[in-house]
Amino acid sequence: MSEPETSQSTALRHAFGNVLSFFILLLIGVLAFSIRLFSVIKYESVIHEFDPYFNYRVTQFLIKNGVYDFWNWFDDRTWYPLGRVIGGTVYPGLTLTAGALWRIFHSLNIPLSVETVCVFTAPIFSAFASWAAYLLTKEVKGTGAGLTAAVLLSMVPSYISRSVAGSYDNEAVAIFALIFTFYLYIKTLNTGSLFYATLNAIAYFYMVCSWGGYTFIINLIPMHVLLCIVTGRYSPRLYIAYAPLVVLGTLLASLVPVVGFNAVMTSEHFASFLVFIIIHVVALVYYIKGILTPQMFKVAVTLVVSVGLIVCCAALAVLIALVASSPTKGWSGRSLSLLDPTYASKYIPIIASVSEHQPPTWPSYFMDINVLAFLVPAGIIACFMPLSDASTFAVLYIVTSVYFSGVMVRLMLVLAPAACIMSGIALSEAFDVFTRSIKFQLLGATQSPQVNKAGDTNSVAKNDVVKTEISEDSLKERPSRKNKKKEKENIEKASSVSRIEKASLVSRIEKRLLVLPLEASVVAILLLVLLGAFYVVHCVWAAAEAYSAPSIVLTTRSNNGLHVFDDFREAYAWLSHNTEVDDKVASWWDYGYQTTAMANRTVIVDNNTWNNTHIATVGTAMSSPEKAAWEIFNSLDVKYVLVVFGGFVGYPSDDINKFLWMVRIGGGVFPHIKEPDYLRDGQYRIDSQATPTMLNSLMYKLSYYRFVETDGRGFDRVRNTEIGKKHFKLTHFEEVFTTHHWMVRLYKLKPPRNRIRGKTKKSKSVSGSIINQLCHAVHVYYCETCSVTLT
Amino acid sequence: MEAAAQKTLTISLFMTLISISILPLLTFSFNPDEPTNRQILVLLDDLSLRSSHSIYFSSLQSRGFNLDFKLALDPTISVKRYGQYLYDGLILFSPSTDRFGGSLDLEGVLDFVDSGHDLILAADSNASDLIRNIATECGVDFDEDTSAVVIDHTGYAVSETEGDHSLIAADDFIKSDVILGSKTIEAPVLFKGIGHSLNPENSLVLKVLSASSSAYSTNPASKLSSPPSLTGTGISLVSVVQARNNARIMISGSLDMFSNRLFRSGVEKSGSLKKHGKSGNQQFATEISKWVFHERGHLKAGNLKHNKVGETGEPAIYRINDDLEFSVEIFEWSGASWVPYVADDVQVQFYMMSPYVLKTLSTNQKGLYYTSFKVPDVYGVFQFKVEYQRLGYTTLSLSKQSPVRPFKHNEYERFITTAFPYYGASFSTMIGFFIFSIVYLYNK
């Protein structure tokens, strides 16, 4: 695409192309960085959402105390009273990256605050990711495709959603690491260089440090290796690309504390070891095939296969028995829910409760990758002509990532780079065809052979050629190392020249047929540009409007202009100014990270949902009546309870809407909490038809306490209904703070009563209880008639 | 920008901070700085009580209390000024009043107690609803029948008027030296008044003087038509309450009990051969007032210390399997000074959701309690807890938070003996590979 077509000398043309590519890449980097700054411009330079606050806090600790203290950090302010070993349970890549950035800036006397560095880490790394996408696609389909893919990736909405300024999360650096690891793998595959193989292992290590999604790499690459072997594309380059990665990569991965022995113990990694064995067997077979005569080889094959099968079966049986003996079959819950999308909703409510673990809807594909969804099939077709090792990898990558994105909406993020690469290839090929057609039509047929020697085709053809040549080479009798290398180079040169000529001859014939009419080409180019323009418009809109909200500050537009809801920070500031340093704050786990990071108070549970029982305890307390809840909270030394309530301003992701998950998670551990008790005829409601259990639950009471005083009738703007129980008093909790828009409400546990009251007048209390029982009986009867009439 | 960075750094990470949280509400009426010269408001139905109960009052005055006598209906009564209580204790010897003068009311009395002040309340057979309600709020239920009195046909005090068995000679005391003093009360206590019952689930209220098994509570003037609601040892004559903030309350069903007449009178319990020249009332009332006004059984604990063995400073965090030393000081108020409290049953818990370590503390007889133990092999946020609840004594409930961390990466053993075969294997493989490479590459 960027290649200048008219040329005197190829060298000059290449130089010019490289310089142009360099500046285009620079601009892509600037674009990737600047499109993510909408959140800073529209709001302010703050950390977004939930997890980023934890990462921010960890980064602060790292910068203040150094790497070793970070590694050994035991955090006593979360998961009270269990605490959390941060160093051993966190993926340190992001934190170390930001820490290193901060250190570099400071060594250059640029005094940035930790927060600033954290806010801008994600945009910086999305520029890197674009460049990595360029490198990867260039390896697959040449520079033009690389640049197109880089442009597309720099502004794909799916990736923007996780990497806007302030979104300081693992994915911010992990996507770069993912693409870069893939690039190095393909690079090794294309060159057969041990240098790149080592770099690949190091890049893999960085990925393991950064994100749990590294298992995608360690499963995808073995899949590709297996595919190459099965389709007869085994070559020493494949061996060099794969074997060092498994050995070094596994060794390095086990150095990361959070992975540790998981790198060899869990099923996620078994595929790589299996393929590791297979590739050695295949390598041995090829070697033996080379040194034996065909007859002898046949005999050897029958011998080895019969013995090998027995051994394999025995080993497999042992392995299966080992794996089957563990309850989860050696797979972690999150990974299992990838293979069986219904697994989580069946067994692990805590995973299912997270919205980003839900399967995506169709519109979200259009929202997140937009026109790329239509370009991907074209890209896949382009990858098949001609099919190389690199392009099979690209195809495999897109196919698997489409599946994973269909399981979990969060993994759309893994799909996005693949879609960009594919679309980049498709667009580049299309432009290639159209521009060539135009040129052919304009300049006439005489100059067409020169066209065919243009850079794109050349490099692509070279990939293919090099591969076939080397695989042939491997079958030859093996000379000593040095000799071999020289010989190889010679052969390579000679052969590649001849091949290119041969290939160009073939492609010339093909491309003569592919030449399109001038008008059609021009129109098609215009349409493609239009498509691209539409994509750009959508991406900018998505970056500006859809994905830039920090969720810690909310805004609405009304007739009076912009209205800002800053209730969360108001509440956290209240906590940090008005409570003791060691006070414990209970809330649903979503707000745990923010409470520790912003209010600096100890929390009971937080977003690192590692202890289901502890979360279930809080869920049970929230679902229990006041007294039982008070006892649970008191046993956990809780002083304050924080609830998020959206009914006043219409903020839909509040605790009442999350309440059923609390009931489910609580009920999963404490069976006396039953979900049907909170549902009226299977419907979740908070109006007068709500069940008594629901109306008496702590969450209901804390959310709607004094709510009727706001408008006189207690109209909930999220559920669009009047609440069921309007006037009630709290006996064990007292309201201490409610934010301006009622979005965060803080309650304090009352101390136990100073005195225990005696019984009141006996005769009255007896009759009272009888009346209560009567009421209850009547109520139950009424309910039964209700359900009967309804059914 | 730089300043902001510094600020965020300083704000962050107070994980090493540990604070003391002493649980009991530190609002004792009992002010250790001013143990004497304490003000007590005495509300009377009738100022003549001042002389008829003068022995009791003078015993209080002789112990350093300033008594402020007022009629219950006195409009100038006020216990609080500018949010400060004017009195340390309240004696309600006004059973028949149905309201107080001035600003004091039921809520006022309860607030007075809830802010840590002490109360002595005496009812009588004509006790008003106000007095009954105060008692109920403190956990004491007087007989519902307003005209009922306690009658005991076997445990009565022998007197001139034959057939009047409402003057009871009660000798069923609580067995507690703290409440009733170390000197046993020999003579029975004369009691004439109404009985009350306690909720057995109420852990704060104690029956100090209970009726005998033959007692019952009814109106002596009317005929007994239905079984009386209060009978036997279920009837409590005098009860004490120690509220959760350690405010102390005494509730008696008889005002006469404190009178000079019964203080001086001799007593002969029916069926008992022994005749006492002087009733036990004076000793009983005086001893119990000592308890109520914190002259006895008032403990204070503090100076909670813990450190690693061999060190002196309190560490911010412990490591699992550390050896540590723990100490706490406990003193008791003797009425004039703080004296060391000596007991062998004070325990410390090393607590995280449940006590991982529970150890009885040894004492040096000078108020210092100490022990040492090994931190369990569990990490988390632990608390040192001293929970001391003994009959009659103030509740001690102290806790101090201290996190326990796991080993650091460099605190494990460098080489494990059992792993030597593995070390051998890996090194021999490395050497073997090296030799193999040389042989393979250069052996041609």
Automatic annotation (TrEMBL), chain A:
Region described as Disordered: spans on this chain: 471-491
Domain of life: Eukaryota
EC nos: 2.4.99.18
Enzyme kind, highest EC tier: transferase
Pathway where it operates: Protein modification; protein glycosylation
Membrane topology, from the record: Multi-pass membrane protein
Organism: Penstemon smallii
Protein name, as recorded: dolichyl-diphosphooligosaccharide--protein glycotransferase
Any one of the GO CC terms: endoplasmic reticulum membrane
Assembly: Component of the oligosaccharyltransferase (OST) complex.
Catalytic reaction equation(s): a di-trans,poly-cis-dolichyl diphosphooligosaccharide + L-asparaginyl-[protein] = N(4)-(oligosaccharide-(1->4)-N-acetyl-beta-D-glucosaminyl-(1->4)-N-acetyl-beta-D-glucosaminyl)-L-asparaginyl-[protein] + a di-trans,poly-cis-dolichyl diphosphate + H(+)
One Gene Ontology molecular-function label: dolichyl-diphosphooligosaccharide-protein glycotransferase activity
From TrEMBL, chain B:
Keywords, sorted A to Z: Endoplasmic reticulum, Membrane, Transmembrane, Transmembrane helix
UniProt keyword Chloroplast, yes or no: no
Residues covered by the OST48 middle domain: 306-444
GO biological process annotation, one example: protein N-linked glycosylation via asparagine
Location in or out of the cell: Endoplasmic reticulum membrane; Membrane
Pfam family, one: OST48_MD
Membrane-traversing stretches: 12-30, 420-442
Membrane topology classification: Single-pass type I membrane protein
UniProt key word Transmembrane: yes
Span of domain OST48 N-terminal: 40-292
Pathway(s) per entry: Protein modification; protein glycosylation
GO CC field: endoplasmic reticulum membrane
Domain of life of the organism encoding this protein: Eukaryota
Coarse class of the protein's main subcellular location: endoplasmic reticulum
Functional description taken from the UniProt entry: Subunit of the oligosaccharyl transferase (OST) complex that catalyzes the initial transfer of a defined glycan (Glc(3)Man(9)GlcNAc(2) in eukaryotes) from the lipid carrier dolichol-pyrophosphate to an asparagine residue within an Asn-X-Ser/Thr consensus motif in nascent polypeptide chains, the first step in protein N-glycosylation. N-glycosylation occurs cotranslationally and the complex associates with the Sec61 complex at the channel-forming translocon complex that mediates protein translocation across the endoplasmic reticulum (ER).
The family this protein is said to belong to: Belongs to the DDOST 48 kDa subunit family.
Record's subunit section: Component of the oligosaccharyltransferase (OST) complex.
Protein name stated in the entry: Dolichyl-diphosphooligosaccharide--protein glycosyltransferase 48 kDa subunit
Organism: Penstemon smallii
Lineage: Eukaryota, Viridiplantae, Streptophyta, Embryophyta, Tracheophyta
